[in-house]
Specification:
- With 234 residues, the protein is an alpha+beta fold.
- It has one domain: Hypothetical Protein Pfu-838710-001, CATH 2.40.320.10.
- Helices cover 25% and strands 36% of the residues.
- The longest helix is centred in the C-terminal third of the chain and has 14 residues.
- The radius of gyration is 18 Å and the shape is globular.
- This is CYTH domain-containing protein.
Length: 234
Amino acid sequence: MWGFWQPPSDQADDLRVITRQADLVELKLLVPDGGPAGGQARKVYFLDTPSLALKQSGIVVRVRERAGREDDIVVKLRPMHTRNVPGWLRRAPGFHVEVDAMPGNYVCSGALKQQLGKGSVAQALKAGKPLTSLLSARQRRLLSAYAPCALDDLTTFGPVKARKRRVKVRGLALTAERWVYPDGSALLELSTKCPVDEAAAVSARISRALRKDGIAPSEIQHTKTELALAQAAA
């Protein structure tokens, strides 16, 4: 039923528990990279300690600089257990819970996003300000509650250069995002978001459409963030 995203039989019960906690499911799939493609240009930065203390604590801080559009900064808890989330965070504007689904891997994530003005990231970098200066008061509160370190301990990693565009596969709308890492390696991810109760049907339709077009998943499936932080650690 889930197509490429079919969970192993021994994880089916866990998946049902995870999806009950979420607002949306984001289906993600790495496919063989076909090289440069058009789309909206962006630069992606991550904030963490040199030893990746945030990552090891299940926290991701991502900053996006988007050409011609508002920049943004997000603090993610991944994995997140909603029963442990304080009420102020669950009710905070810009906070949402979703399941990140990749073949054989499902994780519940909580994200608190803050929209920034156009050029905010470039202006901060030009002025020599740390990107932590872009965090909102709520994001700082979140990090103070969950992070194992102080904001002053965080280092900026990146940028990862990316392009994002909408594509159609046999009439199905997907998002294609290509990331080029500082070492020159690249990946191409196809994704879509859908309500939790539609995830199984949507994933099955996408899988059938991709198979008909001869598109198969890459042998190894990683999240874009995992690879970015792995390079940072190296």
